[in-house]
Amino acid sequence: MARKEKPDLLAYIREGRTMTRRQKLRLIVQLSVPSILAQISATVMFFIDASMVGHLGEKATAAIGLVESTTWLLGGLGSAANMGFAVQVAHFIGANDFEGARRVLRQALVCCLGWSLMLSLLCLLVHSHLPFWLGGAADIAGDASTYFMLIGLAGIFFQMEALAGSMLKCSGNMKIPSALNIMMCCLDVVFNYIFIYQLDMGVKGAAMGTGLAELVTALLMLYFLLWRSKILGLFRVPSVNPLQQGQASAAGEMPPIASARWWKPEGATVLTAFKVGAPMGLQHLLMGGAQIVSTIIVAPLGTVAIAANSLAITVESLCYMPGYGIAEAATTLVGQSIGAGQRLLTRSLAHMSVALGIAVMTFMGVLMFVFAPQLMSVMSPVQQIVAEGTAALRIEAWAEPMFAASIVCNGVFIGAGDTLKPALMSLTSMWGVRLTLAWWLSQTHGLRGVWTAMAIELTFRGAIFLARLFHGGWNRKSLVKPHS
Fold this sequence. Notes:
With 484 residues, this protein is mainly alpha-helical. The chain is built from 16 helices and no strands. The chain has helices spanning 9-15, 21-54, 58-94, 98-126, 130-133, 138-153, 155-170, 175-198, 202-228, 242-250, 267-298, 303-339, 343-379, 383-396, 400-415, 420-471. Helix 12 (303-339) runs antiparallel to helix 13 and helix 13 (343-379) crosses helix 15. The longest helix has 52 residues, at 420-471. The chain is globular and about 60 Å long.
């Protein structure tokens, strides 16, 4: 007997078909698993990067740790621009308007490329001053400055890779972006080994290895998006009705790729992207600023504290990356469900995604608490750094369930295009709770006080995000209208 073909559960959303609870859970898991694997592999990449640099000594680790939060800030600003367009694509796909989705994609490529060039130029202008603005000592400022400049210049590759990945994921294709991200991690390890050890380039080599891995991945990601995607491919023959195709030819219309006007940003699309992306960008800017302030709070505690803080953050990301994987799945599911006009299904998928995220990250938190010493020992051979990092991780482990709630809820809200209020909630929590407590507790408890403040704030943030999930008005109408 022929093997029974698995149903396309995403098509159920677009077609308005009823789904059982088991089918919903299977769909969430089906989209989450590839993304979780990619997120974990990315974390492993940073884990290995940090371990490679960590074995170069305290100063090398501190140099990267000093500017790490700023590089995350730049990545967040790029991600905000991407999602402003990707959410629209998800809504168009949910409404079965694939040409509308491709039109948004073309504009996204133009706008996001310009945005990434501006960010790279900014990095080039400030790289020599940044380490001193962050309170870094002169003995690590040179390496920190060089690392930040090279990572900033590679931001163009990161932007294009992330944009293409976001578009594929919002179309329901999680496997290709996830596989390519895993490949990028492997390439990063290989390139870093060559640049750091074989060519003896130290911190500079770490940045160059990461940038080269991002370049290769960006090219492949764009290939699968623009040439191979059945829904969003721009350089493949679109699946149109033969009669419509003949009418278009008779009218003398140019194919979308051949006409420059098809690539020109439209006011309505860019404005919608701005409404979705601007709050996210502001959130990343101020959250990144808060991370920088947190780095400034840690900096006076000494080189050991800076290194332990940076390495502990890298280790902790192993715990929360599964949450971000589930959040990405939630963004796709909620975006397409809202585009299809299925409000009840939207809420059901949102609630189940959040519950799954909390369960997974609670389990990861337990593992982090138990194996914190071993994980820190892999990162650094310095016993003081291992001891401080272990204490920080065990404090943070208690906050992981509510951290999961905030992460996946945010993915739900992004899919709905509801970004302003969640951004304000995150900023209030970070600036009003974490930084205030971190400064106060660091005076008497050092690095452990900073991480205690972090755990308290993440628990608070998770609670207010859950309140909005169950009682807020995030489940609104689609951001886009299908085109005839």
